[in-house]
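Standup notes, structure subgroup. Blocker cleared on the guanosine-5'-diphosphate input:
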Amino acid sequence: MKNIVLFIGPAGSGKTTLTASLGRWLWSKMLTPTAYINLDPGAESLPYKPDIDIRQYVTTEKVMREYGLGPNGALIKSIEIACSYLREIAERTSKLPAPYILVDTPGQMELFLFREFGPRFIREFKQVGYIIGVVILDPTLTRKAQDVTSLKLLSLIASLRLGVDVIPVINKADLVEGDFRLFKDNEYLRLKVRETGEGIIGEISERILELLDDYKLATRIPLLSATTGVGLEELYDMLHEIFCACGDLT
Ligand code: GDP
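Run returned:
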């Protein structure tokens, strides 16, 4: 069984860059060979060499031309077409020799998470290995304590939607100027939410944090930089812990 890491996040959060840098890190530091899968039919260039590429089956550009669609319509149509190749891609993945499979999902997160593509991917790939989602957020979107709560909630939504374990991460740590403790220290985060959250929003935010704490979900958020490599070891440790807990000692 493979260890499958699925990178999910809004456009520009760093899915593609992180896919490439974790792959390089796994090989250079852990001597673990990785295989890469690109699931973005709209990708133009990639910083890694995909072992399996959805663009072999469908590209957004070709769909635009063939169906006379604009960029958004073509993206949606190409994702629908891509869905029908997932079984074949899962079969090909199971034959790849690498134990770690890194999966770069479509640029627009909602196309993967809130359409059929994500759940179908999980159905097909469950036979291939154990899947962990890494939900990536850009720190420029998380400035306040409540934003960190939203990130944790987003990772819970991804977990509910896909039915897999999820690790929330903050990428672009090299660009973060602010309160790192918000990401690292739950009690501190709760305090800040209480201080800054007004009215009902503050209350909701606190209740969400309590709920996540009760179930030990999203308790640690690694701060990463896909460009400098900061935090990759911490992410690897968290992935390793979950993969090992499911019985696969890599
Ligand atoms: P995706 O749309 O989620 O796949 O995002 P990309 O991986 O294409 O990254 C979007 C932009 O953010 C690119 O210009 C990357 O070079 C940049 N980027 C990604 N990760 C980092 C990071 O850790 N630090 C900085 N400074 N830039 C990053």
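Discussed briefly. The chain has a mean pLDDT of 91.
Next: hand off to the docking folks.
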